[in-house]
Amino acid sequence: MNLEELLFCPKSKNKIHINYDEKTVYVKNSEQTYPIKKGIIDFIPEINDKISNTYDNVSSVYNSMLTSSNILTKLYNAAVWGLNDQDYVDYVLNYIPDDFNGLILDVPVGSGVFTCKKYPKLKNAKIICVDYSYGMLMEAKKVYEKNNIKNVALIRADIGNLPLKSSIIDLLLTMNGLHAFPNKINAIKEITRVLKNNGYLTGCFYIKDKRKISDLVVDNIYTKQGSFTPPFYSEEEFVNLLKDNYDFTDKNNIKSIFYFNSQKK
Ligand SMILES: C[S@@+](CC[C@H](N)C(=O)[O-])C[C@H]1O[C@@H](n2cnc3c(N)ncnc32)[C@H](O)[C@@H]1O
User: Fold this and answer.
1) For burial by CB atoms within 10 Å, which of 12, 55, 71, 259 has the most?
2) Methyltransferase domain spans which residues (predicted)?
């Protein structure tokens, strides 16, 4: 994947030159540079805020928390989310055909816990993975390497100001991100900017007003901790936000988790 053709400087929008030997991204016609840390380009090295710190801190235990991998997390997920398994993840990932041939943007990639079984099947795709937390990106790097996934590039950036050129993405996967993004309107604007016309927007996230216990935990624990950031959308509010620019091909929810597939008009 030729990242220099796809990326630009998120501040100046100038072209970039990537020098892996020097572990530096140079911005053309500018003094600006960005570090490359363990193969991950960091377009927001100055960011060290509550959200990135929260996810850096949970990155090593995130997988076991999310996957009901032991009896405690099973009980926890059943109580908080009313879920016994992560079926919604399969529904989302099944929207992507295994022979998908195009450029995918996965944002936020998180720890790659759910995608590490899907990406080895996507032999014809190229995948750019973006997240705000370096800790989460390092977990994704480890799990992708373990699964011998080579067609991915890992990038630290803010979805509200993506370092990607416009109209280059064929499919944008956004799993469990919208409830975490601080500026959801900017996130949706950027998603729409980088997607090609007729490109697919696929994902899942928390919606309010479906399950009281989940809403209480989100409002009183996750929001304070920084892993979720309001405002939270109801299904109707989200569908209204997208309806001018997207056609939904499928949408559904399991308790408080909404999942959907849509196509940019
Ligand atoms: C709940 S995790 C979801 C990760 C993964 N997609 C999954 O389903 O397991 C939310 C992720 O959103 C990332 N995030 C939060 N704000 C972000 C932003 N402004 N831009 C990009 N990623 C962001 C966090 O760092 C975190 O890794």
Assistant:
1) 55
2) 104-199
Alpha-carbon distance of 137 to 106, in angstroms, equals: 12
Which residues, other chains included, contact 175 with Cβ-Cβ below 8 Å and sequence gap of 6+?
89, 92, 106, 108, 110, 114, 115, 203, 204, 205
Burial (CB count within 10 angstroms: exposed 0-12, middle 13-18, buried 19+), residue 160: middle
Of 235, 229, 161, 164, the residue nearest 199 (C-alpha): 164
Tokens found for residue 157: 């950036």
Residue 81 near residue 218, CB atoms below 8 Å: no
Question: 78 C-alpha vs ligand 1 centroid, how far in Å?
Answer: 22
Q: How confident is the model at residue 71 (pLDDT cuts 50, 70, 90)?
A: confident
Give phi and psi for 142, each to the nearest 5.
-60, -50
Residues 227-236 have pLDDT tens digits of: 999 999 999 9
Section 28-33 average pLDDT: 98
Residue nearest to atom 23 of ligand 1 (CA): 132
**Whole-angstrom distance, CA of residue 219 vs CA of residue 54:** 16
Q: What kind and span of H or E run contains 27?
A: strand 24-27
Beta strands in 132-187 (DSSP E): 152-156, 169-175
152-156 and 126-131 beta bridge pairing? parallel
